[in-house]
Amino acid sequence: MKFFIDTANIGEIKEAKSLGMVDGVTTNPSLIAREKKSFEAVVKEILKVIDGPVSLEVMSLDADGMFKEGKKLMQLGDQVVIKVPMTMDGLKATRRFAAEGIPVNQTLIFSPLQALMAAKAGAAYASPFVGRLDDIAHDGMALVEQILTIYDQYGYDTEVIVASVRHPGHVLEAAMMGADIATIPFKVIQQLAQHPLTDRGVDTFLADWKKVPKK
């Protein structure tokens, strides 16, 4: 399973990359706004560091506006993926992008039928938002399982990005289900590496090492 990092913070991206944990980046307007820099400045920094796919979101609500905006975003770098919302106009834009060989990350997916429509429209990636479903007492990971079953049954090439990841359990379930990608906040990437028994083992080894005669 590929790890994308869900952030626009260049420090987090560089640190995760140093761990070998970044196959790509997903951003959104909220994440970019936190950086207190212009959109273009943030994106240029990210594209300098990352070789893999970088999802950048369109802000237009109509298909023509999305397509025009997406074409402009593609000029920023070859690894740019256009992030398009799962709406009727979004599907129209996705078809146009796909026809020109431009990869789309269909975002804000909350049902298996939305994911099916995204695949039929030609999206390269589909992003079910599992954490937001959990927030309203739905099983977000059950949605991922349904999407994977549908895509496997019909042979769709659309990759599933497990998005809105809130904790390591989401990542574990995604990996066990065979999801293509999980896009993970930096905080959760850190949590994946942590375990109290590991910390205890390190402390024990260090304490015992102090007891070893130096001569």
Describe the fold and architecture.
Helix 4 (63-74) packs across helix 5 (88-99), helix 6 packs across helix 8 and helix 8 (140-154) packs parallel to helix 9. The longest helix has 15 residues, at 140-154. The protein has a single domain (2-210), classed as TIM Barrel, CATH 3.20.20. With 215 residues, it is α/β, with parallel strands linked by helices. The protein has an eight-stranded parallel β-barrel with strand order 1-2-3-4-5-6-7-8, surrounded by seven helices. The chain is 52% helix and 17% strand. It starts with a strand and ends in a 5-residue tail after the last helix.
E-strand count:
8
Structural class: alpha/beta
**Sheet with most strands: strand arrangement:** 1-2-3-4-5-6-7-8
The domain tally reads 1
Tell me the CATH superfamily.
Aldolase class I
Topology, please?
Layout: E1 2-6, H1 10-18, E2 24-26, H2 29-33, H3 39-49, E3 54-57, H4 63-74, E4 80-85, H5 88-99, E5 104-109, H6 112-121, E6 125-128, H7 130-135, H8 140-154, E7 159-162, H9 168-177, E8 181-184, H10 186-192, H11 196-210
Could you give a short description of this structure?
The protein has 215 residues and is an alpha/beta fold.
What attributes characterize this protein structure?
215 residues, alpha/beta, 8 strands, 52% helix, globular
